[in-house]
Amino acid sequence: MVDIFLRTLPFFAIIGLGYWAGRTRFFTAEATAYLTKFVFYFALSAMLFRFASTLPFAEIFNGRLMLGYLIGTAAVYALATFVAWMRGLDIPTTAVEAQCAAIGNVGFLGLPMLALLFTEAAIGPVMLVLTVDLVVFSSLIVILINGGRDGKLTPATFRLIGLGLLKNPMIVSISAGLIWSAFQVPVPGHLNNFLTILGGAATPGALFAIGASLAGKSAERVQVAAWLSFCKLVIHPACVAVVLIWLIPIDPFPAAVAIAAAALPVAGNVYMLAAHYGIAPHRASAAILLSTIASILTIPLVIAWVGTP
What is the mean pLDDT of residues 242-258? Predict the structure, then answer.
């Protein structure tokens, strides 16, 4: 436990450095936005494509893992939805709370951290988890918000979802890499060097951007944020563990990676969606802030439980 905590500490130290930079205005909100855009569209995409294209396709794709993670995530999504419904919330606000409870920071925090802790063999399972989050649940929140707000679903909503997936650089880079891998085409040395250098900026850039963005988050609605953080950090990995260990058992290593990925704090893009639609942005902001702080302790606990190589 102590060893894992010390191994994860540098990641949170970089997040803390970013938080200091944002809090002191050394890094403005505009600078944070541009850094996030660089990481999202360039560095992280290069990292994902390089891993997806160089790993054998058969070693990456695991249908049982994707199904198990989907069921486990849907379970905590349903729980948060039920609790929100019992409190009398409308559908769009309920969707934002459910998204906070079930969707973690897999892209910016999970990829670099789990690759270090579990070795690069963890990249394949993490990419599958990320794909489920982006394709299924990022689409679901758009459907629920638009349907709940307008009282009906229109073709424009599904067109918006389709365009969003096609324009998402993480989806594009993973898909392109998997296609490259499926055709068993070697990655030229110069291209691999380019991707390695550019992708190397993903880890420090993403962590710093997380911290800088947290500087602008508030801790309003603390009770609700604490409940959503508990769902994300405790109930979510527990649900995924039940499914992947007992209901749809898979090999211990990918199961451990998926459970650890489920233990990550609330993803920053939940706040972006909430702010874009003007639905409970302060609630999402507080959940991101509290879950990220608490995850300094909860992530090592979960990883110590599932074990590392």
Answer: 96
Lowest mean pLDDT among 49-63, 78-92, 179-193: 49-63
Calpha distance 92→176 (Å, rounded) = 33
Average of per-residue pLDDT across 222-245: 96
For a pLDDT cut of 90, what percent of the chain falls above it? Answer: 70
- Burial string for 269-305 (b: 16+ CB within 10 Å, else e) reads bbbebbeebebbbbbbbbbbbbbbbbbbebbbbbbee
pLDDT digit string (tens) for 188-198? 999 999 999 99
Residue 192 · residue 64 · CB < 8 Å: no
What is the longest distance spanned by two Cα atoms in the chain? 58
As beta bridge partners, residue 266 has: 104
Place of tokens 């507080």: 286
What value does the CA radius of gyration of the chain take, rounded to a whole number of Å? 18
Cα dihedral across residues 37, 39, 43, 46: positive or negative: negative
CB 256 within 8 A of CB 308: yes
- pLDDT confidence band for 309 (50 / 70 / 90): low
Query: 111-118 vs 44-54: helix axis angle to the nearest 10?
Result: 40
The identity of residue 154, as a single letter, is: T
- Of 278, 139, 179, 221, the C-alpha closest to 187 is 179
Q: Which of 154, 153, 162, 141 is nearest to 92 (CA)?
A: 141
Q: Cβ atoms within 10 A of the Cβ of 212, count?
A: 26
Q: Is 234 exposed, middle or buried (0-12, 13-18, 19+ CB in 10 A)?
A: middle
CB 271 within 8 A of CB 220: no
Token code pair at residue 252:
């211990």
